[in-house]
Write a structure and sequence with these properties.
This protein is mostly helical. It has a single domain, classed as MFS general substrate transporter like domains (Growth Hormone, Chain: A), CATH 1.20.1250.20. 76% of the residues lie in helices and 0% in strands. Helix 3 packs antiparallel against helix 14 and helix 5 packs antiparallel against helix 14.
């Protein structure tokens, strides 16, 4: 954990489980909006705007990288302010307005700006929001409540994907005009989601900072937390953007109108697994659950590399959703377990920044390998990296 100093109780430090419900409802509506867009966006870029695969990887990577840098700064400043709600609200409102930019996009540059604004919003809100969740509930229930929040998020993804499927069917497939209408309509749930944050109560760090911290004091991280960040880095390199998996489904000949359906299957398995996984990690520990999930992901990517076709792509997308469900909430609960309460926001920020930069590298490398040597090389590399992450986690990280 981080180095600790003398502390006193914060006047704001109290538990507020109701925050989880309002934050979860906000995430639900935000993901309804986002997932109306994301299942069709990679194909919109490729087929309508004519963007190349390496450039799609660059757009995804740069946007995620920007968002992840902001996660560190927003987490740090929320610790210094002793408040989380304001930054959380700012992040959600920026992501809401990015939806309008997607609808106006006429080329890759506008999509990059819109995607970056969306990820910037996510970057600003994520660390303060995750710290707020951790501070609103008892330590022994973090896995469960992080799992519940992610389940609500994924429930929104399922609804948003169903809306996209319905709209595509109604307007006769993936025409440019139909996709642009979906992008415009996605703004409605996005802006509604921000109104729910009015009900969230400021909790504040359970242990307030006794003196102003300086940025980038990474030397004060414990060796155990640094090794855990190495595991997160390998995970980020291996865990390509969802766009790669969607494009792989298109690559093996899945019909365009079925792309959102197979993505829906991914979200269903994600949503069904993330809450039970969080509760299970509270009981059996984060480490064994993450280890088995990493092994599953290695097998999954070998399947996408060598054994996927139109008949079994559904199976692989179901496993993909299961893997994300097994790791998403559990990873965040592990960060909260390893962090000093005084610097919990910064801890989440560092974790998300590491994930973001390595995801940038993974997307760029994966896109380049795909373009030069074919998809199998990209997914095989991902399998190797996640197995290496499993080895480091088992051998080096001290975690329940």
């Amino acid at each position: 954990m981080f180095i600790k100093r003398g502390k006193t109780a914060s006047p704001l430090a109290h538990k507020s489980p109701a925050n989880i419900w309002w934050l979860s409802a906000t995430s639900f509506l935000t993901d309804v909006s986002s997932e109306m867009i994301f299942p069709v966006l990679p194909l919109f870029l490729k087929s309508v705007l004519g963007v190349s695969l390496p450039l799609i990887g660059l757009i995804e990577g740069l946007a995620e990288g920007l968002g992840s840098v902001l996660k560190y700064f927003s987490g740090f400043w929320s610790d210094q302010l002793g408040k989380r709600k304001g930054l959380t609200f700012l992040g959600y409102i920026l992501s809401a307005f990015s939806k309008l930019l997607f609808a106006l996009a006429g080329g890759a540059s506008t999509v990059l700006v819109a995607r970056s604004l969306d990820r910037a919003g996510k970057g600003i809100r994520t660390a303060p929001r995750d710290a707020l969740i951790a501070e609103s509930v008892a330590k022994g229930q973090r896995g469960k409540y992080f799992g519940f929040h992610r389940a609500a998020d994924t429930g929104g993804a399922i609804v948003g994907t169903l809306i996209a499927i319905g709209l595509l069917y109604w307007w006769g497939g993936g025409t440019a005009s139909a996709i642009r209408l979906i992008l415009i309509l996605s703004f409605i749930p996005a802006i509604l989601s921000t109104l729910l944050l009015i009900k969230v109560k400021e909790v504040g760090p359970a242990v307030p900072s006794q003196r102003r911290q300086r940025l980038f004091q990474f030397g004060k991280l414990s060796g155990n937390f640094k090794i855990f960040l190495l595991v997160a880095a390998l995970f980020g390199l291996a865990n390509y953007s969802y766009a790669f998996y969607v494009l792989r489904a298109d690559d093996v000949g899945l019909a365009f109108f079925l792309i959102p359906v197979v993505y829906l299957l991914y979200n269903i398995f994600y949503g069904l697994s993330v809450y039970p996984a969080g509760r299970l990690s509270d009981k059996v520990g984060r480490k064994p659950l993450l280890t088995y999930a990493f092994i599953l992901f290695a097998l999954l990517n070998l399947g996408f590399a060598f054994a996927v076709d139109r008949s079994n792509v559904w199976f692989w997308f179901a496993l993909y959703g299961l893997f994300i469900g097994l790791t998403d909430g559990v990873f965040k609960a592990a960060v909260a377990d390893l962090a000093n309460e005084e610097r919990e926001g910064e801890a989440f920020g560092i974790y998300h920044t590491v994930i973001g930069f390595t995801t940038l590298g993974g997307n760029l490398l994966g896109g380049w390998l795909w373009a030069i040597y074919g998809a199998a090389w990209s997914f095989a590399l991902s399998s190797l990296l996640i197995l290496l992450a499993a080895v480091v986690l088992v051998a080096k990280v001290r975690l329940k």
